[in-house]
Amino acid sequence: MSLLVVGLSHRSAPVSVLERAALHADAQIKLLQDTVAAEPATEAAVLATCNRIELYADVDKFHAGVAELSTLLAQHSGVGLEELTPYLYVHYEDRAVHHLFSVACGLDSMVVGEGQVLGQIKDSLAKAQDLHSAGRLLNDLFQQALRVGKRAHSETGIDRAGQSLVTFGLEQLSFGTPVDDWARGKKALVIGAGSMSSLAAATLARAGVAEIVVANRTSDRAERLAQILTESGDTDVPARAVPMESVPAELTRADLAVSCTGATGLVLTADAVAAAVGGRVPEGAVAGRTAVGDGVREELPPTSVGTDEGCPLDLSVAQSGFSVMGEAAVAGMDAATLEQHAAWVTGGAVDRREAARRSPEADAELITALAATAAAIGRIPERRRPEPAVEAVRPEPVLFLLDLAMPRDIDAAAHRLAGVRLVDIESLAEASADAPMAADVDQVRRIVSDEVAAFGAAQRAAHITPTVVALRTMAADVVANEIARLEGRLPELDDKHRSEITQTVKRVVDKLLHAPTVRVKQLAAEPGGAGYADALRTLFDLDQETVASVSRAGDSTEKNAGPA
């Protein structure tokens, strides 16, 4: 087994890089085709989700495989290799198996324990099978990953730790209020009709929203999703489909919008969102404020000079924005007055008697330094007490936006708009970093470790199977040749005796081969057991081409198999 995976995910790369590296459906197909056409790889599969892009391959050379897969990822993602390389991770053989099994169980997900990734793994396998890029190794790997993921969810409480990305996003939008209570009665707009958007629509329907509007570039899919929601016996939420051109108008009516499309550009710009909330927030709530966290802050006016009560400097003679002429504003002031100003700034006091002891030369030196500073920076270097920032109350959100697309569907600048709350993949990644881990996660990790060991043993045993088959084929040929020779020497043998002799010879050969072939499979399944196949071929002088033909026949069967 020479399994190699090269990829990047939310754990290794910032969202900005993941967005740019995202692969649309056609790019994934081309990447698979180019990978299997490359020299080091014989099989390939792509796992592309909203927070990961991974290329799996069966390679015959590790270093050449890493270089080729990294280059292909860069070429098809459009991100330069030098820029992409620092964010790539590489797993090989057992570590690659461990990685995919962990992904299937939800251990590597942005929301630990979520089960949606199982559907994505199944889709990846189906795509590789359709393109005939998945052979025995990747078929076995991905199908076993699906079984391991299902086992983890059925035998442990990992579901209690995890949830879908949709549910987690809605929880972030609701500020800790139970999603069902928060969503009840809201008008929802769902943009997209794929698996993630369908899950979002179903989740919102169960939460009791007042209405769901589905918008999609393909009207048939939008209408189909709306029909499913309407006819569902679980809820009585009305749903209707609209074309994408109606999204701006529908956004003005919506309280909540969830977007997850495969678009390469923005679906909702900040201007479109601003227009949608323009009539629903207090006048002037957007302009003149700077976003700070979840609130807004009034922008402070420019600092002026000589306006504070008690300031010992009278700079009213200086014009606003004076520069080199600033020397005139301080000419004739003694050092004691200047130092009194410094004391006023710091809230301290200056003993004028002590200051008066200074010589005129010291005064002149201080004034000259101050004038030089004014000439350099264009103003008197005044240290004013900063005015306290006036905190303005940010209007309550009237439009909640959940962007689950990669690359993003909604302009990130929309979060700065008053009356808007936006949660996207980037903010979900930050929030999930602090999410508590469930106690069942350790149990899932043990399941993954056990399954990785079992899979490795099965693969090593399978590696020797073609050799064992070739050995038994050779033995059968020997038996057939010897029976033919016997018939030539004893032509008078009747059919009964001929059959008895044939069966006896076959039983002898089978018994002689049984123990060594069973034992060699057991030994080959152990770590480091790959050499037993070579030893068997050497001991029995087996034809390498015969062994290879058995392997190719098995690979052909596996490539036509469907996902579990």
From TrEMBL:
Pfam families: GlutR_dimer, GlutR_N, Shikimate_DH. The active site is at 50 (nucleophile). Its EC number is 1.2.1.70. Residues 443-542 form the Tetrapyrrole biosynthesis glutamyl-tRNA reductase dimerisation domain. NADP(+) binds at residues 192-197. One of its GO terms (biological process) is protoporphyrinogen IX biosynthetic process from glutamate. The record marks 99 as: Important for activity. InterPro entries: 4pyrrol_synth_GluRdtase (IPR000343), 4pyrrol_synth_GluRdtase_dimer (IPR015896), 4pyrrol_synth_GluRdtase_N (IPR015895), GluRdtase_CS (IPR018214), GluRdtase_dimer_dom_sf (IPR036453), GluRdtase_N_sf (IPR036343), NAD(P)-bd_dom_sf (IPR036291), Shikm_DH/Glu-tRNA_Rdtase (IPR006151). Pathway: Porphyrin-containing compound metabolism; protoporphyrin-IX biosynthesis; 5-aminolevulinate from L-glutamyl-tRNA(Glu): step 1/2. It catalyses: (S)-4-amino-5-oxopentanoate + tRNA(Glu) + NADP(+) = L-glutamyl-tRNA(Glu) + NADPH + H(+). The keyword Oxidoreductase applies. Substrate binds at residues 49-52, 109, 114-116, 120. Catalyzes the NADPH-dependent reduction of glutamyl-tRNA(Glu) to glutamate 1-semialdehyde (GSA). Homodimer. Belongs to the glutamyl-tRNA reductase family. Possesses an unusual extended V-shaped dimeric structure with each monomer consisting of three distinct domains arranged along a curved 'spinal' alpha-helix. The N-terminal catalytic domain specifically recognizes the glutamate moiety of the substrate. The second domain is the NADPH-binding domain, and the third C-terminal domain is responsible for dimerization. During catalysis, the active site Cys acts as a nucleophile attacking the alpha-carbonyl group of tRNA-bound glutamate with the formation of a thioester intermediate between enzyme and glutamate, and the concomitant release of tRNA(Glu). The thioester intermediate is finally reduced by direct hydride transfer from NADPH, to form the product GSA. This is Glutamyl-tRNA reductase. It comes from Streptomyces dysideae. The gene is hemA.
